[in-house]
Backbone:
């Protein structure tokens, strides 16, 4: 039976659970990840380190390490042929067909993702080769066009450059070119600018926004930086300890924050932003260990509003149109 998705949705993640280690006693890294991404928009997935952002994106790409597996949940993806595929049940051959033109990912660290032994042109061209039997000269032209789109100066000459011959910012542009060469319907960008200084970071974010407009992609943008969220995203899903605790449009999330964890994250950003050496220290306490989560709301031990009823399980619910929160209280509008 063909799955129905809400109008305008390209990706619907429902109740995703991922475990690592022994099949008999897996450690659950993702307990309940649910969110939707609207076609042509950018959804930011935010949360502290260890909240499960990268595991979520690897599950979507079918790239979980051998020790990790999907325990339950649906990952419905609407392809350009109008068919919905549940990525949680897709086999390796299905992923090979989908990766590139359907789904594509830009990883955090260009130096560990680029092969030092091959030229950047060959590495970007390799992506095309998997889906396209165009002759070599035509592929080369398309790679050079893509290098021009990501504003690499002297694109034709840089085709034959090796990764170590480029600056960090240029390497990140190469990663973006690689992620976009097949014009994917959905691009997953995992902290693509964290390693870069602020000026280059702003240029890369600007470039991604322009390419998104030109190519009409949907983007899942993974970050722990609320400043980047405000700049890049249309919508936000906030993760805590392996679950989404709030999802809304950016404006709604900033103006009518409903979950105490998100309130804490936002309150911790100084008005003038963070200095280059300052780290976000959001809320007293730390993210609980995966094997030692409380039975009810996982944030309750750190929450100043916690009540005895927070020990009961809580699920993500729509509190107002398009605004979901996993808290039994509703703090929208509270001081
Ligand atoms: N290969 C693995 N084996 C066991 N546990 C893992 C593995 N990869 C991730 N995890 C666990 O899954 C949880 C989520 O990790 P994940 O890397 O997705 O967090 P994150 O939000 O992306 O953090 P960061 O911002 O630091 O990248 C963590 O507790 C982590 O220890």
Residues:
């Amino acid at each position: 039976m063909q799955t129905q998705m809400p109008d305008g949705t390209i990706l619907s993640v429902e109740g995703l659970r991922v475990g690592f280690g022994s099949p008999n006693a897996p450690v659950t890294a993702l307990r309940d990840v649910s969110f939707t991404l609207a076609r042509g928009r950018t959804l930011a997935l935010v949360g502290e380190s260890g909240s499960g952002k990268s595991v979520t994106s690897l599950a979507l790409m079918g790239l979980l390490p051998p020790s990790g597996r999907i325990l339950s949940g649906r990952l419905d993806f609407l392809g350009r042929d109008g068919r919905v595929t549940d990525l949680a049940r897709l086999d390796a051959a299905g992923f090979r067909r989908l990766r590139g033109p359907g789904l594509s990912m830009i990883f955090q660290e260009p130096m560990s993702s680029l092969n030092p032994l091959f030229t950047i042109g060959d590495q970007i061209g390799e992506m095309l080769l998997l889906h396209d039997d165009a002759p070599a000269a035509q592929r080369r032209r398309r790679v050079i066009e893509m290098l021009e789109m990501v504003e690499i100066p002297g694109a034709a000459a840089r085709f034959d450059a090796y990764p170590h011959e480029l600056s960090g910012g240029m390497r990140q542009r190469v990663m973006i070119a690689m992620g976009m060469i097949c014009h994917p319907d959905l691009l997953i960008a995992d902290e693509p600018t964290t390693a870069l200084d602020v000026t280059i970071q702003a240029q890369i974010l600007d470039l991604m926004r322009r390419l998104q407009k030109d190519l009409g992609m949907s983007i899942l943008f993974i970050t722990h930086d609320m400043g980047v969220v405000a700049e890049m995203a249309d919508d936000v899903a906030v993760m805590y300890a392996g679950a989404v605790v709030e999802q809304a449009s950016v404006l709604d999330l900033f103006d009518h924050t409903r979950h105490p964890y998100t309130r804490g994250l936002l309150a911790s950003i100084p008005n003038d932003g963070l200095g280059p050496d300052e780290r976000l220290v959001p809320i007293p306490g730390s993210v609980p260990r995966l094997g030692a989560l409380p039975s009810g709301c996982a944030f309750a031990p750190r929450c100043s509003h916690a009540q005895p009823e927070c020990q009961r399980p809580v699920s993500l619910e729509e509190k107002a149109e398009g605004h979901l929160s996993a808290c039994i209280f509703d703090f929208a509008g509270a001081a």
User: Anything to note?
Assistant: The chain has a mean pLDDT of 88. The longest helix spans residues 198-215. The radius of gyration is 20 Å.
